[in-house]
Write a structure and sequence with these properties.
By secondary structure, the protein is of the alpha+beta class. The protein has 4 helices and 12 strands, in the order βαβββαβββββαβββα. A hairpin with a 4-residue loop joins β11 and β12. The longest helix is centred in the last third of the chain and has 19 residues. It is globular, with a radius of gyration of 20 Å. InterPro entries: Peptidase_aspartic_dom_sf. Pfam families: Asp_protease_2.
């Protein structure tokens, strides 16, 4: 299952078998395949991106939807946790802004090929679970979750790092799951998270709950890394100063986490 998906290196292209430069950081490699097909343009048409604006809804079937199911939410890091602030933040998407300046990173496009999907069992419905370095510790069972607006860290994980409760920043926040159940966090903590040779100071909401995953890296971390995850290929790609880095997910660990979740659910219902 995991054979053939060792994280070989990070560099230009991020492909398997790539010989990284001497100063490049060797990291696991995972990639995803996106095959976008467009209609062949007519002779009188100019080539260009699809004529679709941000926020525009795709065409729907004639029958109206029966409802909408949203995602796991928590207070965003870029505004206050109030209805007024959140409404103002929602309106800001209608205002065009200049892209933020970033350090000099590889400008190669991030793409995925069928090679990236090798070494895993198909078909699958496994989440993307990776390993990263937090502080001085290599942390396994880290979920990449594009549906989480906060990064989450389990208290049991912090305890193993030697962190004490008084080292947490006392900023409790309400985290709401997809089922609408709310849970208060213990506080916040900032850790240096390193992946593929790139380090980002990352803010986590700390929760005291039986851990299925040691941590959840949500939208804030994914955005800060300019990363593109792929569920199909169970991998994550992002630019570095030396090229495109690819981190492979661990399908076996992802399924072990499913077993842990099932056992916890069974114990709660007993």
């Amino acid at each position: 299952m995991a054979s053939g998906r060792s994280n070989g290196g990070c560099g230009a292209g991020g492909g398997r078998g790539y010989n990284a430069p001497p100063n490049a950081v060797q990291q696991p490699v995972n990639q995803a395949f996106v095959n976008l097909q467009e209609e062949t343009p007519q002779a009188h048409e100019l080539l260009g991106p699809p004529k679709r604006q941000r926020g525009q809804n795709p065409k729907r079937a004639n029958s109206p939807p029966r409802g909408r199911i949203t995602m796991i939410l928590g207070p965003p890091e870029d505004c206050a946790d109030s209805v007024r602030a959140l409404k103002k933040r929602a309106r800001q998407v209608c205002t065009l802004r200049t892209a933020p300046s970033e350090p000099s990173l590889c400008s190669d496009p991030i793409s995925f090929t069928s090679e990236d999907a090798k070494g895993i069992q198909h078909p699958h419905s496994d989440p993307l679970v990776i390993e990263v370095t937090m502080g001085d510790f290599n942390v396994e069972r880290v979920l990449i979750d594009t549906g989480s607006t906060v990064n989450v860290l389990c208290w049991q994980t912090l305890e193993k790092m030697g962190v004490t409760p008084d080292q947490l920043k006392p900023e409790t926040r309400t985290l709401t799951g997809y089922d609408g159940v709310a849970k208060m966090s213990m506080g916040d903590v900032k850790l240096q998270v390193r992946a593929g040779g790139v380090t980002r100071k990352t803010k986590f909401a700390v929760i005291d709950a039986p851990p299925i995953y040691n941590a959840i890296l949500g939208v804030p971390w994914i955005y800060s890394m300019q990363a593109v995850p792929s569920t199909y290929h169970l991998c994550l790609k992002f630019p570095t100063t030396t090229g495109i880095c690819t981190l492979y997910g661990d399908q076996r660990i992802a399924r072990v986490c499913s077993v842990i979740e099932k056992k916890q659910r069974t114990a709660e219902n007993a």
